[in-house]
Design a protein that fits this description.
single chain; about 190 residues; mainly alpha; 50s Ribosomal Protein L17, Chain: A; 3-stranded antiparallel sheet; 6 helices
């Protein structure tokens, strides 16, 4: 949950602030980008991202929670169908704030807040695939390690029989290397 903001509330009272944020979020989901003051955009960002997270869940309880905040069913439907599918692979960071300068009338700093609906970059997709492959391989490696432990417990006697044979093979390999070096030196 986002940390509470310090200072005066937007619009005066808490109820007015909640309604303003709900209306700003509804406009953002309807138009995909809105122009507002920097302060309102910064306050809207965690609010809107939380609603998108509910939409990504997609269950009935999440839909009812969002409908309790945004009363327009058409916008909520668009949020749960279009926007949630567009940001399905993205883990947070669903909005972007860009400062655009000051307003002409009262010189208030303005910003554009927009939904980030572009797909993830190819590099991030490759990293995601690699992590998924590693997660799939990890249980297989654990199973293989467990099998090796079982085999080593069963075969201590076989290892004792193989030890002299392994020593003889190592001595033979060393003798072959020495013969090859001698042959190279003669040439």
């Amino acid at each position: 949950m986002p940390t509470p903001t310090k200072g005066p509330r937007l619009g005066g009272g808490p109820a007015h602030e909640r309604l303003m944020l709900a209306n700003l979020a509804a406009s953002l989901f309807e138009h995909k980008r809105i122009t507002t003051t920097v302060t309102k955009a910064k306050r809207l960002k965690p609010y809107a991202e939380r609603l998108v997270t509910f939409a990504k869940r997609g269950d009935l309880a999440s839909r009812r929670r969002v409908l309790g905040l945004i009363s327009n069913k058409g916008i909520v439907h668009e949020l749960f169908t279009d926007i949630a599918q567009a940001v399905e692979n993205r883990e947070g960071g669903y909005t972007r704030i860009t400062k655009i300068g000051n307003r002409k009338g009262d010189n208030a700093p303005m910003a554009v807040i927009e939904l980030v609906l572009e797909p993830l970059s190819p590099k991030q997709a490759v990293v995601a695939e690699a992590t998924q492959a590693a997660e799939k391989a990890a249980p297989v490696a654990e199973e293989a390690a467990a099998e090796e432990v079982v085999e080593t417990e069963e075969a201590p006697e076989a290892a004792a029989e193989e030890a002299p044979a392994a020593e003889e093979a190592a001595e033979a390999a060393a003798a072959e290397e020495a013969a090859e070096e001698a042959a190279k030196d003669e040439k």
